[in-house]
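Hi W.,

Here's what went into the run:
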Amino acid sequence: MEQDTISAISTPIGEGAIAIVRLSGEEAFSIANRVFKGKDLTNVDSHTIHYGNIIDPNTDELIEEVMITVMKGPKTFTREDIIEINCHGGMVSVNRVLQLILREGARLAEPGEFTKRAFLNGRIDLSQAEAVMDLIRAKTDRAMNVAMKQMDGRLSELIRKLRQELIETVAHVEVNIDYPEYDDVEEMTHDVLIEKASYVKKEVHKILQTAKQGKILREGIATAIIGRPNVGKSSLLNKLAHENKAIVTEIPGTTRDVIEEYVNVRGVPLRLIDTAGIRETEDIVEKIGVDRSRQALKEADLILLVLNGNEEFTKEDAALFEAAAGMDVIVIVNKTDLDQKIDMEAVNQAANGAPVITTSLLQEQGIDELEEAIANTFFDGELDSADLTYVSNVRHIQLLEQAESALTDALNGIEAGMPLDLVQIDITRTWELLGEIIGDNVHESLIDQLFSQFCLGK
Ligand code: GDP
Ligand code: ZN
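Here's what came out:
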């Protein structure tokens, strides 16, 4: 572990009051010791906390009053020596502490570098490392919980279990090929192969099904509010944003300065798209009206289609339903406080099974029902079940999809009576693909596993 010592401000999630400057590496203790007045940090027990002052050794100036945590590797997150300096005095003094640490020889950590070290030093596997990243980007508590679960290794555990199944299958097939004269290994009939491969395929499929929810939790449900002018789109947007604490994010690296708005509806993050369009003055909206709605439709995961209950159901309304056909739609019949002129039968028919919610945004009626419909559309009320393992990482999803298709190939091969060594190639491929999720060194461990798993001299 001959890595330089890195440092950065790493404030714990959910605890805004204190800020932590973290150091990791061979010189963590000696660098901290040079700026700490209180105790000799190179000479204290591991995993202890010490009170004292940070001073500039060049000027003897007091920088900050701190608590320092001393943790000796390898029982640390990075497996290196770690120092955590807990500061209380706000961002300015925290920054001064960091500057001092850097001046004394630490290097500013790159984003994710502590986690990268944890992975490189074998403390966590790849999927856990990626979960740490997801955690940092999580936009709601629920998204955070999913990342947390993945970080404590639930996905890894599941993947390991499936790989175990596959490796045993491969081992049996291998023996069958190499030692056809052994009667007891002949048990590996096509039927057993089919059973194992089908089982793993089913499990992989289940994990993939959670991917949709995972993506949503991390990136938000791309939501478009559409409807004719004056039906209440802006009012709905404002209501959702107001009640649910909108988070406005600027996305760097885009040519236009796109601003996306997130609202958190019962733990489900909605990413409202084209809200700028909705907020433009009414005459512009009127001018572009339905055309603009159609454009927003293309990018959306969820459509909130707003109708005016105080008016007839128009041809334009019907056109919007047609444009949204096949997508997740929630119909909102607004302005229930006024005379209801809309033909609800026509609305329900157009909705074609999609939920229809009646609201008065003006009088704040029906908002609860709407929020419930939004949550249900994506999670069918199942989200709270504690043991769902969500996959939210694009790389993981791709690998799982490839694994599923390799298993399909294997199963087709078996059915078609292909020789076992050819089927085995697909099974091994699946094993490797799943291994890439947790970052295993594939080929060597395959060999190791084979021998440790299956002992002919039993
Ligand atoms: P948009 O053009 O679809 O964005 O519609 P707005 O949200 O700008 O609303 C148009 C007008 O309808 C505004 O004057 C709103 O105050 C009004 N409005 C919105 N919702 C309701 C409602 O539930 N009841 C009544 N009576 N008026 C509403
Ligand atoms: Zn408007």
